[in-house]
Amino acid sequence: MEKDENGFQNFSIRILESTESLRQVVLDKFENFIFNSNIMSGINKIDEPTLLSLICESHKSEYIREFIVEMLPLLEQSCITDRVFDSCISYSDTEFRKTLCILLAHMWLRIDLLLTLNEELDTPEAFIKAVCIMVRERYSKDEFEVFLRRNKHFWNALPCCISWLMPKYEDSTLVDVIKNYANQAVM
């Protein structure tokens, strides 16, 4: 994604290509976030009312939905309040709700969250999905081990994780960690 001369993420590129009225709605409501999100310094905040109104407006516009998909992963987790979370998981459009759920799950990578977001997933499948995401995104060994210890009751699903990750991630240190914990689960 392009940045301006100050290093600010330019979220407005796709939005500015839309109709004049839609562009005005987006720029009026979300100007502060669009032009002041400093990706370089890691400051990516948006207040709850603004984010809720953005989600509400997305019911009316594909452009705003695309904007949310680009913006949501860049937000600090503290921006995802209970009300924002509830708005995402109760979104009326099924396909977009799934997209929001996947984005939120990637932000937190917690089994209980994955289960809440994807009722159709059974627990081991959600665990496997989270483990695979962490390996793919190259999480640190320490973060990964904390995650595994927190979810010890799912260790019996670790052999499935290994089969999903092989051979592509065979050289990953996290795969070695998975093998170690899988052996502990058998004991």
H-E order: HHHHHHHHHHH
Report low-confidence residues grouped into runs of 5 or more. 1-20, 35-43
Structural class of the secondary structure composition? mainly alpha
Any idea what the radius of gyration is?
A: 19 Å
Helix content: 55-70%
User: What count of structural domains?
Assistant: 2
Major β-sheet, in short? Answer: none
Mean pLDDT: 71
Q: Specify the number of helices.
A: 11
Q: What is the CA–CA distance across the termini? A: 48 Å
What structural keywords apply?
187 residues; mainly alpha; 11 helices; 0% strand; elongated
Describe the protein in words:
This protein is an all-alpha fold and 187 residues long. The chain has 2 domains: 1-108, no CATH class; 114-187. The protein is 63% helix and 0% strand. Helix 3 packs parallel to helix 5, helix 8 packs across helix 10 (158-165) and helix 9 (141-150) packs parallel to helix 11 (173-186). The longest helix is centred in the N-terminal third of the chain and has 17 residues, at 20-36. Residues 1-20 and 35-43 have low confidence and may be disordered.
Topology:
Elements (H helix, E strand, L loop, with lengths): L11 H5 L3 H17 L11 H10 L4 H10 L10 H8 L4 H15 L2 H7 L5 H14 L4 H10 L7 H8 L7 H14 L1
Helix pairs in contact: 3-5, 8-10, 9-11, 10-11
What's a quick, concise take on this entry?
With 187 residues, the chain is an all-alpha fold. It has helices spanning 12-16, 20-36, 48-57, 62-71, 82-89, 94-108, 111-117, 123-136, 141-150, 158-165, 173-186.
